């Protein structure tokens, strides 16, 4: 870290981190957590665009029951199989898993801790380049023949197919390291860098959520890494691990894979829940309700999430006893999730609800997560899961949780911390309009798929029975609506960067520490280490119409 | 047709027709969970809208004082959902135990899945591409796969079980409604490669006498249909058409159009560079090559098709079916047909348009 001149106590209007160094190298080799967050932002949004293009191709193919995009049925099927595989792999490994921890977490976590940076800034940059290296492998896959195994790489199909399984699994392997290194960094930062006054139960809930996420990242990701290496060993060297012809067991692969990939679902949703806790409290202008229960539920979800992987395999032939135990454990995860939702609602009760764009996304999150979570009950129950497993019901369920919930929380976070990141406000009206469009698009795209799935439409079908056409057509139109909404979000952001008015230090009146420094923050964040109080004491701030910022009541009183 | 109309009446908005003994139990649980889900979603949505309207921020106004924790409330919304999910778990488990426990008097059918078709083996040894079952009689399926993982899924019966290579899974059902014309849909639910979405079959439910009649007729084709028709039937039913065209286009494997000419004249070239003509001779004729290609497809890979693994059909296509397949291949080969026209102007060319024109 660059040394700061001693005696920095007088808060000079310090140069913002965006201007604290010029040239491409000052970005590519930066150790500043805020700049690394923006590097991730650019890279992850590019991945999101790529995964989104695949999604639109999938939805377009499914407008008609037969082949749609290509006349040759076989080529069309191969193309479709590649599209859903690449959509899943890119969105999972390169967008949803890193989005909130790597972008929002990297930017906000040190600021919330009142720290100058994360505990290991160099490791942080290394984890970004791990992500880039993993991404390069995925691009390589795209350019050299694609991938058609589904993002789950189920054996023995993945050891038989002629598509590029080894580069893709190596890519996922390397992306996993990025995830592990970020997790290590966050855990160390939260343990070592908390400022005076910030006890564990005075941490902002986003930090609890990121801490819980990091535990999963460092405990579960190595299992995926080992699994993918075993898969490579079988495919490249013929070592029999999963293939029954070589003495292996394909169900073993599924156990290994889901031992990581189910906890990974919580890597996707826990940080999202942390974001929502911050946004709901700030925009209800009220202390968060049930702080300890929300904090504890994050840890409970992280730990219970390790015990439920077998619910992906109810029809695989694992024993009835295993099915019963996994079903029961699966239901146990629903309780901490329900606790969070009720606490968010209780926070809104008797609040002063301010419908700004981040709050609109947060309210959308609660509704969509409600649908995503409650439809999980059908899949946790054994008798109904047997019918619904591997149908569009599952597709709709996890898109409500990942798209509807994680994406909405990501957008809530982006709009919430945008003024802090770039020092600019955005058009409230257009941001709200985009939020409404994305919300409608989400529901039109995915709700009909619940019905199609319950009626028996299997997933990963390039062609389907004509009786399912209506559901697919509504869904495809919804996906175009969602695309329009998301491009509007992008337009609002670009307009803000070019024309947005200057953001004050604390535009929303939140009390977490990142709002105590300038917008955008200087390179070193805080001139002196701040002292933390109750992170949800939002009532200590009042709006100052002259500056458009919130100011501390006591500070305002002394000034007057 | 009738069954199709009945199916329109037999299903609901959420669920397809229920046609097995435990289907309605699955549906009952589905609708119970749906009621719970709708109740909680409505609760969340109504409270949210109510709070947003009632406590909407107005200028200069601050929030009203209220508690930021309440242990009694927290316990309430922890314990009530906990009880509900335990109830759902128990109902789900009970329904599942029914599915997992076949009655002792069940009829056994073996299911062999392969890329990309199904082979159902009946107690008398007959193998069929569709599932035919008697009504009101428990049927136990023993499932396996020859290549990758597949999954047998019959929405009307609410049944699904994976077909895993190297192991035998079991499940059972008892059909409750006769449906021997339209049939119920049977899908592969586990992604298995290129033609996963075409790996569909039908379930025909016969009355007891009808099932016996069907099984007897289906087990014996000699004397009922010509060998060419039998060959065409096997092509349609046993998954051949998923990879081999009969109109000359390249799908996944080589086309069957004029394949017999190419084989019998020894013109076929293999991936290892050898020509079929060099192999043919005393003790290994064109028919032997066809037989070997069906039973042991990896023995000679046609040039240009390396890396495509066809499943072997040994034990699934019987020896007396091979001559029928050869007769049918001949009917698809122009030169052979024109040469055969003079001595035996008869059965095979005449029936060829039927099979050649099949979609």
Give the overall shape of chain B.
Answer: elongated
Can you tell me the residue ranges of chain A where pLDDT is under 50 for at least 5 consecutive residues? Answer: 1-12
Can you list the strand order of the major beta sheet of chain B?
3-2-1-5-8
Shape of chain A: globular
Largest sheet of chain B: 5 strands, mixed
The main β sheet of chain A shows up as: 2 strands, antiparallel
Query: Which runs of chain B of at least 5 residues are low in confidence (pLDDT < 50)?
Result: 1-9, 344-359
Number of helices of chain B: 11
CATH architecture of chain A: Up-down Bundle
**Largest interface, Cβ cutoff 8 Å:** A-B, 89 and 90 residues
- The percent range for strand residues of chain B is 15-25%
* Helix content range of chain B: 25-40%
Order of helices and strands of chain A: HHHHHHHHHHHHHHHEEH
Word description of this protein:
The complex is a heterodimer of chains A (560) and B (359). With 560 residues, chain A is an all-alpha fold. Chain A has helices spanning 24-28, 33-61, 73-112, 121-143, 157-160, 165-192, 205-237, 250-283, 291-304, 320-348, 357-380, 382-388, 392-422, 428-454, 469-499, 553-559, and strands at 541-544, 549-552. The longest helix of chain A is centred in the first third of the chain and has 40 residues, at 73-112. Chain A is globular. Mean pLDDT of chain A is 93; it is low at 1-12. Among the domains of chain B are: 107-219, Immunoglobulin-like (Sandwich); 227-356, Orthogonal Bundle (Cytochrome Bc1 Complex, Chain D, domain 2), CATH 1.10.760. In chain B, 40% of the residues lie in helices and 16% in strands. In chain B, the strands form 2 sheets. In chain B, strands 3-2-1-5-8 form a 5-stranded mixed beta sheet, with no helix packed on it. Chain B has a 5-stranded mixed beta sheet with strand order 4-10-9-6-7. The longest helix of chain B is centred in the first third of the chain and has 32 residues, at 23-54. Chain B is elongated. Chain B starts with a helix and ends with a helix. Residues 1-9 and 344-359 of chain B have low confidence and may be disordered. The interface between A and B is large, with 89 and 90 residues.
């Amino acid at each position: 870290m660059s040394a700061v001149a001693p005696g920095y106590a007088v808060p000079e209007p310090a140069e913002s981190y965006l201007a604290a160094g010029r040239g491409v190298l000052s970005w590519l080799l930066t150790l500043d957590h805020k700049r690394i967050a923006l590097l991730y932002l650019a890279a992850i949004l590019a991945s999101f665009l790529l995964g989104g293009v695949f999604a639109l191709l999938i939805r377009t193919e499914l407008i008609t029951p037969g082949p749609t995009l290509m006349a040759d049925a076989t080529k069309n099927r191969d193309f479709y199989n590649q599209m859903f595989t690449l959509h899943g792999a890119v969105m999972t490994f390169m967008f949803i898993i890193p989005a909130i921890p790597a972008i929002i977490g990297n930017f906000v976590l040190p600021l919330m801790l009142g720290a100058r940076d994360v505990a290991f800034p160099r490791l942080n940059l290394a984890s970004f380049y791990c992500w880039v290296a993993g991404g390069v492998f995925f691009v390589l896959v795209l350019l050299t023949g694609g991938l058609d195994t589904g993002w789950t790489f189920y054996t023995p199909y993945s050891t038989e197919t002629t598509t590029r399984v080894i580069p893709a699994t190596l890519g996922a392997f390397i992306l996993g390291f990025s995830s592990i290194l970020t997790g290590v960094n966050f855990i160390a930062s939260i343990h070592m860098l908390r400022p005076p006054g910030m006890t564990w139960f005075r941490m902002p809930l986003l930090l609890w959520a990121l801490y819980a996420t990091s535990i999963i990242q460092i405990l579960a990701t190595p299992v995926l890494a080992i699994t993918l290496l075993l898969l490579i060993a079988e495919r490249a060297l013929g070592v029999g691990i999963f293939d029954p012809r070589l003495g292996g067991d394909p169900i073993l692969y599924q156990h290994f894979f889901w031992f990581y990939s189910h906890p990974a679902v919580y890597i996707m949703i826990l940080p999202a829940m942390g974001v929502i806790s911050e946004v709901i409290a700030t925009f209800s202008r009220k202390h968060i309700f049930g702080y300890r229960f929300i904090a504890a539920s994050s840890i409970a979800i992280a730990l219970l999430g390790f015990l439920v992987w077998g619910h992906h395999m109810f029809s695989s032939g694992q024993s009835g006893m295993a099915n019963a135990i996994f079903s029961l454990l699966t239901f146990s995860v629903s309780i901490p999730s329900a606790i969070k939702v009720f606490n968010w609602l209780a926070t809104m009760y008797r609040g002063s609800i301010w419908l700004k764009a981040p709050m609109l996304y947060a309210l959308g999150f609660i509704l969509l997560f409600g649908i995503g979570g409650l439809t999980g009950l059908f899949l946790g129950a054994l008798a109904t899961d047997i019918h619904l497993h591997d149908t569009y019901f599952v597709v709709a369920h996890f898109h409500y949780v990942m798209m509807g919930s994680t994406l909405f929380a990501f957008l809530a976070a982006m709009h919430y911390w945008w003024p802090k990141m770039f020092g600019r406000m955005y058009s409230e009206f257009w941001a709200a309009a985009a939020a409404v469009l994305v919300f409608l698009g989400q529901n039109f795209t995915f709700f009909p798929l619940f019905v199609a799935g319950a009626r028996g439409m299997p997933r990963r079908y390039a062609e389907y029975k004509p009786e399912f056409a209506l559901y697919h057509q509504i869904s495809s139109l919804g996906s175009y609506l969602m695309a329009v909404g998301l491009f509007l979000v992008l337009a609002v952001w670009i307009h803000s960067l070019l024309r947005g008015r200057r953001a004050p230090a604390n535009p929303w009146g939140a009390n977490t520490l990142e709002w105590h420094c300038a917008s955008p923050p200087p390179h070193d964040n805080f001139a002196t280490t701040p002292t933390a109080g109750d992170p949800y004491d939002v009532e200590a701030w009042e709006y100052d119409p002259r500056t458009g910022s919130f100011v501390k009541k006591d500070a305002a009183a002394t000034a007057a | 047709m009738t069954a199709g109309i009945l199916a329109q009446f037999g299903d609901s908005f959420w669920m397809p027709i229920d046609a097995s003994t435990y289907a309605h139990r699955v549906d009952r649980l589905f609708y119970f969970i749906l009621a719970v889900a709708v109740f909680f979603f409505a609760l969340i949505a109504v409270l949210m809208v109510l709070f947003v309207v009632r406590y909407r921020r107005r200028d200069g106004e601050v929030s009203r004082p209220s508690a930021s924790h309440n242990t009694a409330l927290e316990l309430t919304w922890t314990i009530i959902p906990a009880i509900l999910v335990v109830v759902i778990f128990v109902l789900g488990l009970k329904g599942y135990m029914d599915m997992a426990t076949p009655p002792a008097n069940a009829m056994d059918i073996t299911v062999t899945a392969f890329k990309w078709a199904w082979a159902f083996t009946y107690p008398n040894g007959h193998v069929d591409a569709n599932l035919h079952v008697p009504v009101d009689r428990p049927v136990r399926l023993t499932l396996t796969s020859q290549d990758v993982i597949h999954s047998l899924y019959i929405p009307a019966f609410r049944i699904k079980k994976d077909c895993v290579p190297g192991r035998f899974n079991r499940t059972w059902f008892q059909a409750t409604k006769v449906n021997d014309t339209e049939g119920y849909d049977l899908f592969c639910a586990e992604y298995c490669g290129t033609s996963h979405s075409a790996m569909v079959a039908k379930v025909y439910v016969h009355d007891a006498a009808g099932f016996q009649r069907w099984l007897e007729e289906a087990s014996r084709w000699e004397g009922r249909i010509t060998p060419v028709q039998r060959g065409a039937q096997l092509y349609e039913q046993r998954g051949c058409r998923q990879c081999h065209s009969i109109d000359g286009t390249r799908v996944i494997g080589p086309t069957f159009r004029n394949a017999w000419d190419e084989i019998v004249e020894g013109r076929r070239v293999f991936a290892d560079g050898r020509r079929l003509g060099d192999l043919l001779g005393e003790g290994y004729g064109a028919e032997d090559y066809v037989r070997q290609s069906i039973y042991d497809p990896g023995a000679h890979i046609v040039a240009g098709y390396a890396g495509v693994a066809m499943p072997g059909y040994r034990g699934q296509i019987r020896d007396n079916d091979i001559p029928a397949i050869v007769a049918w291949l001949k009917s698809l080969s122009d030169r052979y047909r024109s040469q055969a026209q003079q001595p035996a102007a008869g059965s095979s060319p005449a029936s060829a348009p039927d099979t050649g024109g099949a979609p």
